[in-house]
């Protein structure tokens, strides 16, 4: 497939799409009914349906009985960790194998022309990005994910979380299920801005940003504190009228849903002429520039707070203008401080 029909490649081999990143039309005013109707299938397919289906499958075949979950036990917690770990290995590993190990589509649609395995760096354990990312994923990521999952299921089983049934409250649960991605977006943006503050960035979030050229295993390569904050998206269901299956969907949206944003490719080829959009460009730009796109492109939070970059030349100019303003403010503060010191 010719990726240059959809984008451009520079001298370094980096690919960028022709079209700038756009926000979902659901939050564009005045609302455009035609654009929304055209966009709706993309809201569900393929990613959200996959994560929702995995939650249903977990509830049907993996999650213990309510009676078992009423008592915290290493047995069923270890079982859930094992299942989560195997599912992450299979899901993440499939993307890694297809795109990075076998390189079945070479660097077609790849934002950064280089592959992470090509370079060693002391920023990573054993100086290898993949080794570092994989270890952090299983040692901390899946562990924190499972701990929150166990805690939430225990809360449901003991009546500490509002548990509605699909028979009694179908419309309420349908609405809650529909807004799971919006809850994730809001939570992710708030947490992301928090961990970009100077102290938390240095000691916590910098671990994730070591992967400047992200790949599938970068998705959950984080500091344990960031894992706790990130998977804390499930805690909204302690307040919302919800259901354990929807709570699992929320967790899976965070856990498995981290892949599309870090896959490193704009499109994943699944045939000679068929591709799946990753919608990863907005988050790739965050890894590239650090101080833009704290959220994804579902809710225009970055636009409202002035940190949006759509990948265009205009977006780059706006980012540079923000940097200049900040430098000018810092220089002015420094000058004022020096003047006060001289006056004293």
From TrEMBL:
GO terms for molecular function: iron ion binding; oxidoreductase activity. Keywords: Membrane, Transmembrane, Transmembrane helix. It comes from the Bacteria. Signal peptide: none annotated. Residues 178-307 form the Fatty acid hydroxylase domain. GO terms for biological process: lipid biosynthetic process. Pfam families: FA_hydroxylase. This is Sterol desaturase/sphingolipid hydroxylase (Fatty acid hydroxylase superfamily). It comes from Phyllobacterium myrsinacearum.
């Amino acid at each position: 497939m010719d990726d240059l029909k959809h984008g451009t490649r520079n001298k370094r081999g980096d690919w960028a799409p022709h079209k700038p990143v756009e926000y979902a039309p659901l939050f564009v005013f005045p609302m455009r009914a035609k654009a929304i109707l055209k966009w709706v299938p993309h809201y569900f397919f393929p990613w959200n349906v996959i994560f929702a289906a995995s939650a249903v499958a977990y509830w049907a075949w993996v999650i213990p009985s309510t009676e078992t979950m009423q008592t915290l036990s290493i047995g069923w917690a270890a079982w859930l960790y094992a299942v989560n770990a195997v599912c992450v290995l299979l899901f993440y590993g499939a993307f890694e194998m297809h795109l990075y190990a076998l390189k079945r589509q070479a660097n077609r649609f790849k934002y950064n022309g280089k592959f992470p395995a090509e370079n060693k760096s002391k920023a990573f354990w054993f100086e290898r990005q993949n080794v570092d990312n994989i270890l952090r994923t299983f040692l901390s990521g899946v562990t924190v994910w499972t701990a929150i999952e166990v805690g939430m299921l225990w809360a449901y089983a003991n009546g500490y979380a509002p548990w509605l049934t699909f028979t009694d409250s179908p419309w309420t649960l349908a609405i809650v299920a529909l807004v799971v991605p919006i809850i994730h977006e809001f939570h992710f943006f708030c947490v992301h801005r928090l961990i970009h503050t100077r102290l938390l960035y240095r000691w916590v979030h910098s671990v994730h940003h070591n992967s400047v050229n992200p790949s599938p295993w970068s998705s959950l390569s984080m500091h344990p504190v960031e894992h706790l904050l990130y998977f804390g998206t499930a805690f909204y269901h302690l307040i919302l009228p919800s259901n354990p299956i929807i709570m699992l969907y929320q967790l899976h949206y965070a856990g498995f849903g981290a892949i599309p944003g870090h896959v490193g490719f704009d499109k994943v080829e699944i045939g000679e002429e068929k591709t799946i959009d990753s919608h990863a460009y907005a988050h790739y730009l965050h890894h590239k520039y650090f101080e833009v796109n704290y959220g994804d492109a579902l809710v225009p939070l970055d636009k409202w707070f002035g940190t949006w970059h759509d990948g265009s030349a205009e977006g780059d100019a706006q980012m540079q203008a923000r940097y200049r303003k900040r430098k000018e403010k810092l220089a002015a503060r420094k000058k004022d401080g020096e003047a006060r010191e001289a006056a004293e």
